[in-house]
Amino acid sequence: MSDHCCASEGAIAGALEKIRANGGRVTEPRRAMLAILGKEHGPFSAEELHKKIGGAGCDVVTVYRSLQAMEEIGVVRRCDFGDGTYRYEFNDGEHHHHHIICRVCRSVETLDVCVADGLERMARQKGYQKVTHTLEIFGVCPKCA
Amino acid sequence: MSDHCCASEGAIAGALEKIRANGGRVTEPRRAMLAILGKEHGPFSAEELHKKIGGAGCDVVTVYRSLQAMEEIGVVRRCDFGDGTYRYEFNDGEHHHHHIICRVCRSVETLDVCVADGLERMARQKGYQKVTHTLEIFGVCPKCA
DNA sequence: TTTCGTGCAAAACCTTTGCAAAGTG
DNA sequence: CACTTTGCAAAGGTTTTGCACGAAA
Fold this sequence. Notes:
The structure is a homodimer. By secondary structure, the first copy, chain A, is an alpha+beta fold. Chain A is about 40% helix and about 25% strand. In chain A, strands 1-3-2 form a three-stranded antiparallel sheet. Chain A has a three-stranded mixed sheet with strand order 5-4-6, covered by helices on one side.
Protein backbone atom coordinates (compact mmCIF):
# COMPACT_ATOMS: atom_id res chain seq x y z
CA MET A 1 0.00 0.00 0.00
CA SER A 2 1.12 3.47 -0.89
CA ASP A 3 4.64 2.54 -1.75
CA HIS A 4 5.81 5.60 -3.60
CA CYS A 5 8.63 4.14 -5.57
CA CYS A 6 7.49 0.68 -6.51
CA ALA A 7 4.48 -1.03 -7.92
CA SER A 8 3.06 -3.48 -5.41
CA GLU A 9 3.09 -7.20 -6.02
CA GLY A 10 -0.61 -6.87 -6.55
CA ALA A 11 -0.13 -4.34 -9.29
CA ILE A 12 2.19 -6.66 -11.14
CA ALA A 13 -0.20 -9.56 -10.66
CA GLY A 14 -2.91 -7.33 -12.05
CA ALA A 15 -0.77 -6.56 -15.05
CA LEU A 16 -0.26 -10.25 -15.73
CA GLU A 17 -3.98 -10.77 -15.41
CA LYS A 18 -4.59 -7.97 -17.86
CA ILE A 19 -2.28 -9.63 -20.33
CA ARG A 20 -4.26 -12.87 -20.05
CA ALA A 21 -7.56 -11.02 -20.25
CA ASN A 22 -6.47 -9.61 -23.58
CA GLY A 23 -5.66 -12.99 -25.02
CA GLY A 24 -1.96 -12.75 -24.32
CA ARG A 25 0.35 -15.29 -22.74
CA VAL A 26 2.31 -14.78 -19.58
CA THR A 27 5.86 -15.79 -20.38
CA GLU A 28 9.15 -15.71 -18.57
CA PRO A 29 10.47 -12.67 -20.44
CA ARG A 30 7.32 -10.73 -19.66
CA ARG A 31 7.47 -11.65 -16.00
CA ALA A 32 11.07 -10.53 -15.85
CA MET A 33 10.34 -7.28 -17.61
CA LEU A 34 7.41 -6.44 -15.39
CA ALA A 35 9.39 -7.34 -12.28
CA ILE A 36 12.00 -4.77 -13.21
CA LEU A 37 9.56 -2.14 -14.42
CA GLY A 38 7.56 -2.59 -11.22
CA LYS A 39 10.59 -2.37 -8.98
CA GLU A 40 12.70 0.36 -10.53
CA HIS A 41 9.98 2.21 -12.38
CA GLY A 42 12.58 3.65 -14.67
CA PRO A 43 11.58 4.62 -17.52
CA PHE A 44 13.84 2.28 -19.43
CA SER A 45 14.58 1.81 -23.07
CA ALA A 46 14.19 -1.62 -24.63
CA GLU A 47 17.94 -1.90 -24.69
CA GLU A 48 18.34 -1.00 -21.03
CA LEU A 49 15.61 -3.38 -20.02
CA HIS A 50 17.25 -6.12 -22.00
CA LYS A 51 20.51 -5.58 -20.16
CA LYS A 52 18.77 -5.55 -16.81
CA ILE A 53 17.13 -8.86 -17.50
CA GLY A 54 20.63 -10.15 -17.96
CA GLY A 55 21.92 -13.62 -18.60
CA ALA A 56 18.74 -15.60 -18.15
CA GLY A 57 17.18 -13.14 -20.49
CA CYS A 58 15.68 -13.13 -23.90
CA ASP A 59 16.45 -11.52 -27.20
CA VAL A 60 16.18 -7.75 -27.49
CA VAL A 61 13.56 -8.27 -30.15
CA THR A 62 11.39 -9.97 -27.61
CA VAL A 63 11.71 -6.98 -25.34
CA TYR A 64 10.61 -4.69 -28.15
CA ARG A 65 7.68 -6.92 -29.03
CA SER A 66 6.57 -7.41 -25.46
CA LEU A 67 6.78 -3.74 -24.67
CA GLN A 68 4.69 -2.97 -27.70
CA ALA A 69 2.11 -5.57 -26.76
CA MET A 70 1.98 -4.39 -23.17
CA GLU A 71 1.67 -0.80 -24.20
CA GLU A 72 -1.30 -1.55 -26.40
CA ILE A 73 -3.25 -2.93 -23.46
CA GLY A 74 -2.11 -0.22 -21.11
CA VAL A 75 0.16 -2.26 -18.91
CA VAL A 76 3.12 -0.04 -19.62
CA ARG A 77 3.40 3.50 -20.87
CA ARG A 78 5.82 4.86 -23.40
CA CYS A 79 7.77 8.06 -22.83
CA ASP A 80 9.73 10.15 -25.26
CA PHE A 81 12.62 12.03 -23.74
CA GLY A 82 13.55 13.51 -27.04
CA ASP A 83 16.77 11.65 -27.63
CA GLY A 84 15.57 9.26 -30.27
CA THR A 85 14.89 6.36 -27.94
CA TYR A 86 11.58 5.45 -26.43
CA ARG A 87 11.44 4.52 -22.78
CA TYR A 88 8.84 2.54 -20.93
CA GLU A 89 7.52 2.54 -17.42
CA PHE A 90 4.97 0.59 -15.48
CA ASN A 91 1.48 2.00 -15.94
CA ASP A 92 0.03 2.27 -12.49
CA GLY A 93 -3.61 2.64 -13.39
CA GLU A 94 -4.92 6.17 -13.14
CA HIS A 95 -2.17 7.45 -10.94
CA HIS A 96 0.23 8.70 -13.51
CA HIS A 97 3.04 11.12 -13.15
CA HIS A 98 5.47 12.99 -15.33
CA HIS A 99 9.16 13.67 -15.59
CA ILE A 100 11.61 16.49 -15.64
CA ILE A 101 14.52 15.57 -17.83
CA CYS A 102 17.80 17.44 -17.68
CA ARG A 103 18.89 18.36 -21.15
CA VAL A 104 22.52 18.18 -20.15
CA CYS A 105 23.04 15.17 -17.88
CA ARG A 106 19.87 13.34 -18.87
CA SER A 107 18.88 12.82 -15.26
CA VAL A 108 15.21 12.18 -14.63
CA GLU A 109 13.11 13.48 -11.78
CA THR A 110 9.55 12.38 -11.18
CA LEU A 111 6.69 14.80 -10.70
CA ASP A 112 3.70 13.28 -8.96
CA VAL A 113 1.31 15.71 -10.52
CA CYS A 114 -0.76 15.50 -13.61
CA VAL A 115 -2.46 18.49 -15.10
CA ALA A 116 -3.70 17.01 -18.32
CA ASP A 117 -6.96 15.59 -17.05
CA GLY A 118 -8.74 18.67 -18.26
CA LEU A 119 -7.29 18.28 -21.70
CA GLU A 120 -8.27 14.64 -21.83
CA ARG A 121 -11.78 15.59 -20.86
CA MET A 122 -11.79 18.19 -23.59
CA ALA A 123 -10.73 15.58 -26.10
CA ARG A 124 -13.51 13.24 -25.01
CA GLN A 125 -16.04 16.04 -25.38
CA LYS A 126 -14.86 16.46 -28.93
CA GLY A 127 -15.78 12.84 -29.50
CA TYR A 128 -12.42 11.17 -29.11
CA GLN A 129 -12.23 7.77 -27.51
CA LYS A 130 -9.51 5.92 -25.67
CA VAL A 131 -7.86 9.20 -24.86
CA THR A 132 -4.33 9.24 -23.49
CA HIS A 133 -1.54 11.74 -23.40
CA THR A 134 2.17 12.23 -23.06
CA LEU A 135 3.71 15.08 -21.13
CA GLU A 136 7.34 15.63 -20.36
CA ILE A 137 9.17 18.61 -18.95
CA PHE A 138 12.68 19.51 -20.06
CA GLY A 139 15.20 21.81 -18.47
CA VAL A 140 18.72 22.18 -17.22
CA CYS A 141 19.01 20.80 -13.70
CA PRO A 142 20.60 22.70 -10.81
CA LYS A 143 23.82 20.69 -11.02
CA CYS A 144 24.26 21.40 -14.69
CA ALA A 145 23.14 25.03 -14.69
CA MET B 1 -3.17 40.76 -36.45
CA SER B 2 -4.41 37.81 -34.45
CA ASP B 3 -4.51 35.46 -37.34
CA HIS B 4 -5.28 32.18 -35.69
CA CYS B 5 -3.84 29.88 -38.27
CA CYS B 6 -0.71 31.62 -39.47
CA ALA B 7 2.32 33.30 -38.05
CA SER B 8 2.49 36.92 -39.06
CA GLU B 9 5.20 38.26 -41.33
CA GLY B 10 6.58 39.93 -38.27
CA ALA B 11 6.87 36.66 -36.43
CA ILE B 12 8.87 35.17 -39.27
CA ALA B 13 11.07 38.23 -39.45
CA GLY B 14 11.60 37.87 -35.75
CA ALA B 15 12.61 34.27 -36.22
CA LEU B 16 15.17 35.24 -38.84
CA GLU B 17 16.50 37.89 -36.50
CA LYS B 18 16.77 35.32 -33.75
CA ILE B 19 18.81 33.10 -36.01
CA ARG B 20 21.21 35.95 -36.69
CA ALA B 21 21.35 36.89 -33.02
CA ASN B 22 22.53 33.40 -32.24
CA GLY B 23 25.33 33.56 -34.73
CA GLY B 24 23.47 31.73 -37.46
CA ARG B 25 23.10 32.59 -41.10
CA VAL B 26 19.87 33.31 -42.88
CA THR B 27 19.89 31.16 -45.97
CA GLU B 28 17.46 30.39 -48.75
CA PRO B 29 16.52 26.97 -47.38
CA ARG B 30 15.80 28.41 -43.97
CA ARG B 31 13.69 31.18 -45.41
CA ALA B 32 11.71 28.65 -47.37
CA MET B 33 11.24 26.39 -44.39
CA LEU B 34 10.09 29.20 -42.14
CA ALA B 35 7.75 30.51 -44.81
CA ILE B 36 5.99 27.16 -44.91
CA LEU B 37 6.08 26.55 -41.18
CA GLY B 38 4.69 30.02 -40.63
CA LYS B 39 1.95 29.63 -43.18
CA GLU B 40 0.70 26.10 -42.69
CA HIS B 41 1.80 25.58 -39.10
CA GLY B 42 1.78 21.84 -39.66
CA PRO B 43 3.55 20.11 -37.73
CA PHE B 44 5.62 18.63 -40.52
CA SER B 45 8.31 16.02 -40.63
CA ALA B 46 11.64 16.83 -42.22
CA GLU B 47 10.63 14.73 -45.17
CA GLU B 48 7.29 16.50 -45.61
CA LEU B 49 8.90 19.88 -45.31
CA HIS B 50 11.46 18.90 -47.89
CA LYS B 51 8.74 17.95 -50.33
CA LYS B 52 6.87 21.18 -49.69
CA ILE B 53 9.92 23.24 -50.45
CA GLY B 54 9.85 21.53 -53.78
CA GLY B 55 11.97 22.06 -56.86
CA ALA B 56 13.90 25.12 -55.78
CA GLY B 57 14.63 23.23 -52.62
CA CYS B 58 17.58 21.85 -50.85
CA ASP B 59 18.76 18.46 -49.71
CA VAL B 60 16.80 16.66 -47.02
CA VAL B 61 19.88 16.67 -44.88
CA THR B 62 19.80 20.43 -44.87
CA VAL B 63 16.23 20.33 -43.66
CA TYR B 64 17.23 18.06 -40.82
CA ARG B 65 20.17 20.22 -39.89
CA SER B 66 18.26 23.48 -40.10
CA LEU B 67 15.38 22.16 -38.06
CA GLN B 68 17.77 21.01 -35.41
CA ALA B 69 19.54 24.37 -35.36
CA MET B 70 16.26 26.27 -35.24
CA GLU B 71 14.92 24.09 -32.49
CA GLU B 72 17.94 24.73 -30.31
CA ILE B 73 17.31 28.46 -30.35
CA GLY B 74 13.56 28.09 -29.92
CA VAL B 75 12.47 29.17 -33.39
CA VAL B 76 10.67 25.91 -34.02
CA ARG B 77 9.32 23.26 -31.69
CA ARG B 78 9.56 19.53 -32.11
CA CYS B 79 6.57 17.24 -31.61
CA ASP B 80 6.46 13.52 -31.20
CA PHE B 81 3.28 11.90 -32.42
CA GLY B 82 4.50 8.48 -31.50
CA ASP B 83 4.97 7.07 -34.96
CA GLY B 84 8.71 7.19 -35.11
CA THR B 85 8.96 10.49 -36.94
CA TYR B 86 9.51 13.85 -35.39
CA ARG B 87 7.46 16.79 -36.61
CA TYR B 88 8.18 20.47 -36.33
CA GLU B 89 6.07 23.56 -36.06
CA PHE B 90 6.68 27.25 -35.81
CA ASN B 91 7.29 28.35 -32.25
CA ASP B 92 5.09 31.34 -31.73
CA GLY B 93 6.70 32.71 -28.62
CA GLU B 94 4.72 32.05 -25.48
CA HIS B 95 1.48 31.25 -27.20
CA HIS B 96 1.80 27.54 -27.58
CA HIS B 97 -0.85 24.97 -28.16
CA HIS B 98 -1.16 21.22 -28.26
CA HIS B 99 -2.52 18.51 -30.51
CA ILE B 100 -4.98 15.69 -30.46
CA ILE B 101 -3.73 12.94 -32.71
CA CYS B 102 -6.04 10.21 -33.94
CA ARG B 103 -4.40 6.86 -33.40
CA VAL B 104 -6.19 5.42 -36.40
CA CYS B 105 -6.21 7.98 -39.22
CA ARG B 106 -3.37 10.09 -37.85
CA SER B 107 -5.35 13.29 -38.24
CA VAL B 108 -4.26 16.19 -36.08
CA GLU B 109 -6.46 18.70 -34.31
CA THR B 110 -5.09 21.73 -32.55
CA LEU B 111 -6.02 22.64 -29.00
CA ASP B 112 -5.43 26.28 -28.17
CA VAL B 113 -5.01 25.57 -24.52
CA CYS B 114 -1.99 24.90 -22.45
CA VAL B 115 -2.13 23.57 -18.96
CA ALA B 116 1.50 22.94 -18.32
CA ASP B 117 2.47 26.38 -17.14
CA GLY B 118 2.05 25.23 -13.58
CA LEU B 119 4.36 22.32 -14.17
CA GLU B 120 6.96 24.53 -15.78
CA ARG B 121 6.79 26.84 -12.80
CA MET B 122 7.24 23.86 -10.51
CA ALA B 123 10.32 22.81 -12.45
CA ARG B 124 11.80 26.30 -12.17
CA GLN B 125 11.19 26.28 -8.43
CA LYS B 126 13.18 23.09 -8.26
CA GLY B 127 16.07 24.98 -9.79
CA TYR B 128 15.73 23.96 -13.42
CA GLN B 129 16.51 26.48 -16.11
CA LYS B 130 15.43 26.88 -19.70
CA VAL B 131 12.32 24.87 -18.96
CA THR B 132 10.18 23.61 -21.80
CA HIS B 133 7.71 20.83 -22.23
CA THR B 134 6.00 18.57 -24.71
CA LEU B 135 2.38 17.55 -24.40
CA GLU B 136 0.33 15.59 -26.89
CA ILE B 137 -3.08 14.03 -26.59
CA PHE B 138 -3.92 10.77 -28.34
CA GLY B 139 -7.29 9.22 -29.04
CA VAL B 140 -9.54 7.73 -31.65
CA CYS B 141 -11.36 10.49 -33.51
CA PRO B 142 -15.13 10.52 -34.07
CA LYS B 143 -14.80 9.39 -37.68
CA CYS B 144 -12.69 6.40 -36.77
CA ALA B 145 -14.52 5.39 -33.61
C1' DT C 1 37.99 36.69 -44.75
C1' DT C 2 36.37 34.07 -41.30
C1' DT C 3 32.77 31.38 -39.89
C1' DC C 4 28.72 28.87 -40.89
C1' DG C 5 25.72 26.18 -44.12
C1' DT C 6 25.19 22.87 -47.86
C1' DG C 7 25.45 18.66 -50.83
C1' DC C 8 26.54 14.19 -51.49
C1' DA C 9 27.36 9.78 -49.83
C1' DA C 10 27.68 6.79 -46.28
C1' DA C 11 26.99 5.49 -41.61
C1' DA C 12 24.59 4.98 -37.30
C1' DC C 13 20.74 4.01 -34.86
C1' DC C 14 16.52 2.27 -33.15
C1' DT C 15 12.80 -0.51 -34.32
C1' DT C 16 10.15 -3.71 -37.13
C1' DT C 17 9.32 -7.90 -39.83
C1' DG C 18 9.47 -13.03 -41.67
C1' DC C 19 9.51 -17.53 -40.66
C1' DA C 20 10.17 -21.82 -38.29
C1' DA C 21 10.49 -23.64 -33.62
C1' DA C 22 8.92 -23.55 -28.88
C1' DG C 23 5.82 -22.32 -25.25
C1' DT C 24 1.19 -21.15 -23.09
C1' DG C 25 -3.64 -21.91 -21.76
C1' DC D 1 -4.71 -28.57 -29.83
C1' DA D 2 -5.08 -23.80 -31.29
C1' DC D 3 -2.89 -19.68 -30.84
C1' DT D 4 0.65 -16.71 -29.15
C1' DT D 5 5.48 -15.82 -28.42
C1' DT D 6 10.29 -16.37 -29.28
C1' DG D 7 15.02 -16.39 -31.79
C1' DC D 8 17.65 -15.41 -35.31
C1' DA D 9 18.69 -12.83 -39.14
C1' DA D 10 17.69 -9.36 -42.05
C1' DA D 11 15.33 -5.35 -43.47
C1' DG D 12 13.24 -0.83 -42.78
C1' DG D 13 13.12 3.94 -41.86
C1' DT D 14 14.61 8.05 -39.78
C1' DT D 15 18.25 10.82 -38.39
C1' DT D 16 23.24 11.80 -38.07
C1' DT D 17 28.04 12.43 -39.60
C1' DG D 18 32.42 13.52 -42.65
C1' DC D 19 34.35 16.31 -45.75
C1' DA D 20 35.07 19.53 -49.49
C1' DC D 21 32.77 23.30 -51.58
C1' DG D 22 29.89 27.38 -51.50
C1' DA D 23 27.60 31.21 -49.15
C1' DA D 24 26.67 34.74 -45.48
C1' DA D 25 28.12 38.52 -42.47
